[in-house]
Amino acid sequence: LFLEETGYQFDAGVKTILFDDRLSMTLAYYDLRRANVVTQDLNNRGVQIQVGEQSSSGVEFDLIGEPLPGWNIIANYAYTDALISQDNNFDAGTRLQNVPRHSANLWTSYEIQSGALEGLGLGAGISFVGDRNGSTRRPFVVPAYTRTDAAIFYRRDGFNAQLNFENLFDIRYFEGARDQNRVNPGAPFSVVGTVSWEF
Predict the structure, then answer these.
(1) Strands of the 120-129 sheet, one edge to the other
(2) Are 53 and 61 a contacting pair, CB within 8 Å?
(3) Which of 50, 68, 71, 115 sits at a 20 to 30 Å CA gap from 124?
(4) What is the value of pTM for the model shown?
C-alpha cells in the first residue's frame, strides 16, 4: 500500500487599488511541494513505487481594470520554477513537463460609450509562452512563442455579436508535448463568430 500523498503550500501577496477603484494590481509569491508522489519502478516494468517529490514556486503579477470609461485592460505575468526534486526515474532538477518559466498575457479593448456607434468595440491581445520541457524522461525544448489575437464586437439592447481573430499573424507554434513523438501544434489563423440575443 502507498502512503498518502502530502503537500506543503506557502503563499503571500499584496493588492492595491489605483485611480479611484478603476484599476487593481496584485503581486503574489507561492511555494508548493508534493511528497510521496508515485512513479514507475525502473527495475520492474508496470510496477509503481513511491519516492517522488515535486516542487513549484514562482511569482504572479496581475493588472485588471477600466482606466477610462469603455477602456478595459487585463495583464498578467508569471514566473514559475517547477521541477522534480526527488525521483527514482528522473534527475533532481528536471523541469516539469509543459510548464514555462515565463508567461505573460495582455488584452485590451475599447467600447464606444455614446452616439450612433454606442456598443461597438475593438480588442487586441498578445500572449507569450516561454520555452518548456517536452518530456521528463528524455528532456527536450518546446520553443517559446508569441501569439496575437484581436476582436470586434457590438453590444446593445441585449443584442451581442462578436468576431474573434485568433493567431492573427498565423505563426507556427507548439502548445505542448507528451513526448518526442507527440508534440501538439497550435491552431493556425482562424476567425470565430458568435451572435446572441438576451431578453
Answers:
(1) 6-18, 23-40, 48-68, 71-86, 102-111, 120-129, 145-156, 159-166, 190-197
(2) no
(3) 115
(4) 0.86
- pLDDT over threshold 90, residue 53: no
Number of H helices and E strands in the chain, helices first, is 0, 13
**Cell numbers given for 193:** 463568430
What does the block give as the cell for 85? 526534486
* Single-letter amino acid, residue 133: N
68-92: average pLDDT: 91
Phi-psi bin for 29: left (phi > 0), alpha (psi -120 to 50), beta? beta
C-alpha–C-alpha distance, residues 107 and 173, integer Å: 20
Distances (CA, A) of 49 to 44, 52, 89, 176: 10, 9, 10, 27
Instruction: Decide if 42 contacts 91 (C-beta within 8 A).
Output: no
Q: Which three cell numbers stand for residue 146?
A: 508569441
Q: Which residues pair with residue 91 across a beta bridge?
A: none
First to last CA, the chain: 57
pLDDT averaged over every residue in the chain: 92
Q: In the block, which residue shows the cell 489605483?
A: 18
Owner of C-alpha cell 520555452:
131
Indicate the residue type of 109: S
22, 66 contact by CB (below 8 A): yes
